[in-house]
Amino acid sequence: MIKQFPQDEPSRHDGADDAGSDKVAPAGKKSPARKQRRWARERAAQGLYQQLMNPVPVDQLEAQFMEDAFMLRIDLELFRRILRGVEQHAAELDAAIEPHLDRPVRELDPIEHAILRLGAFELTHMIETPRAIVINEAVELAKRFGATDGHRYVNGVLDRLADRVRPAEPRRGS
Questions:
Q1: Which one-letter DSSP state was computed for residue 106?
Q2: Which residue range(s) make up the domain with 83?
Q3: Rounded Cα distance, 141 and 112, in Å
Q4: What whole-number distance in Å separates Cα of residue 42 and Cα of residue 53?
Q5: I need a surface site. Which of 44, 102, 110, 158 has the fewest CB within 10 A?
């Protein structure tokens, strides 16, 4: 059984352009590939949340998600890369974000912890995705699934981490 976030439907809102998209969508529309990546991140965040709440082998977790027909509409490669990468590097990711937290990592809200791990993984292991997109996508996940002001916390933590791990890459709006 897949543990799901509240309001578990794929997001339908527009966001920042995403790396890897070679299709240009009409104004106000997201390209199909961009939607697939956003949905992949949503499902990966759900899987990471589930792992924090009830650890199971990643193969078993992935198989549970694959029972959902909606998975055919997402970027499965990105979903798997994030899910497996975060599991493989969880301790390293927690160590990377902890200096930027106002409390011990073990005291984080599990949804925000999952989103921070996802964002930290993309910042440190997926350098092909621009910093601004990584942070924007994590903030959107936190707005959708986290506590009322959780998105601000996620933004601040990931922004400080990005300053450390990608110092040469410009900030949003720079």
A1: G
A2: 32-165
A3: 9
A4: 17
A5: 102
Distance of CA 102 to CAs 53, 76, 105, 114, 131, Å? 22, 34, 9, 17, 22
Flag whether 55 is in a domain: yes
| Cα(112)–Cα(127) distance, integer angstroms | 22
What pLDDT was estimated at residue 97? Answer: 98
Asked if residue 155 has pLDDT above 60, the reply is: yes
Q: Give the torsion sign (CA, 18, 83, 119, 10).
A: positive
Between these two residues, 54 and 170, which has the higher pLDDT value?
54
Going 104 to 110 to 116 to 122, the CA torsion angle's sign is positive
Q: What does the block give as tokens for 140?
A: 């959107």
CA 158 to chain centre: 11
Asked whether residue 76 is domain-assigned, the answer is yes
CB 139 within 8 A of CB 154: yes
